[in-house]
Write a structure and sequence with these properties.
about 290 residues; Porin; about 15% helix; eight-stranded antiparallel barrel; 2 domains; single chain; SH3 type barrels; mainly beta
């Protein structure tokens, strides 16, 4: 039963990852086809268009730096964002009245463009000499791509009596504060445990290459004896936990995480039990 629950947790995490990735792609690109009317008074949202403000922008044949550059767009040309694949965006542009090109640009290049005036008119701001236009990375469809909030991950580790593996999912409420859900499987010689917890996570120096973090949370743990001679009885208990660790920034979306957890289990019997674990893991932002 406990093993089945761990498998179900893994499946739900993978399903969540797929759903969020699909949702981001849909939100970023909008409709993949030109807007068209299906019923009177109803119209599909048009694709987001951006204007190049750099002297030029290189467009590749595919979503990666190993694909060749086949066209160099010039300043003031407009690009229509069609879809996203990880950090790459498929764009279309009108070269002249009869020719249209389609290619791929990196997220960093997209961040150096402005939203088309026809979709986001410039705004007059007090103290500014000219109306202010919206940068592409500030647009609601793209803001999560440049500042991702949701993340998923997995961990492996050990306590004094067992090996453990876990899955986690979190969401950054701010740059420094996040909420996190964790599911862990502990496997000892004489027992097997499954735990689920919710945590509040604080990363005070989130921009550091190696960023320390601290967590507090609570949850439940199910214990099951693996051998009949085990002194560990089947039970379901609540627990509190405090975590401390550091995450190493690999890229904008990926981190390696090392953490220490202190778990205080409130047992149904008179005495409580403590578990200390060390874990290493990997997280990716969606």
């Amino acid at each position: 039963m406990i093993l089945n629950r761990g498998i179900i947790t893994a499946f739900l995490a993978l399903l969540m990852c797929s759903a969020l990735s699909w949702a981001q792609t849909a939100d970023t690109a909008g409709a993949n086809e030109p807007a068209k009317t299906s019923k009177p008074g109803k119209r599909r949202a048009e694709n987001l268009r951006v204007e190049i403000i750099e002297p030029f922008l290189e467009i590749r044949t595919g979503p990666g730096r190993n694909y060749p550059i086949f066209y160099v767009a010039q300043r003031s040309e407009e690009l229509e964002i069609q879809k996203r694949r990880n950090d790459w965006y498929q764009v279309g542009l009108q070269v002249n009245q009869n020719r249209r090109k389609t290619g791929w640009i990196h997220r960093e290049a997209l961040g150096r463009t402005l939203v088309s005036k026809s979709q986001e008119p410039p705004v007059i701001v007090a103290g500014e000499p000219a109306p202010v236009r919206m940068n592409a990375k500030e647009h609601p469809r793209l803001i999560h791509a440049f500042n991702p909030r949701a993340y998923l991950g997995f961990t492996f580790g050990r306590s004094s009596t067992s090996d453990l593996a876990g899955l986690l999912a979190g969401y950054n409420l701010t740059d420094k504060l996040a909420i996190e859900l964790q599911a862990n499987e502990l496997l000892g010689q004489s027992f097997q445990s499954t735990s689920f917890s919710g945590n509040l996570s604080l990363t005070p120096f989130d921009r550091w290459l190696v960023a320390p973090f601290f967590q507090v949370g609570m949850g439940s743990i199910d214990n099951k004896a693996r051998v009949t001679t085990s002194q560990q009885n089947d039970a379901s208990d609540k627990f509190f936990q405090s975590n401390a660790g550091a995450s190493l920034l690999l890229s904008k979306r990926y981190r390696i995480r090392l953490e220490y957890r202190h778990i205080n289990i409130i047992q149904s019997r008179n005495e409580n039990r403590e578990i200390e674990t060390w874990q290493i893991g990997f997280i990716g932002y969606l």
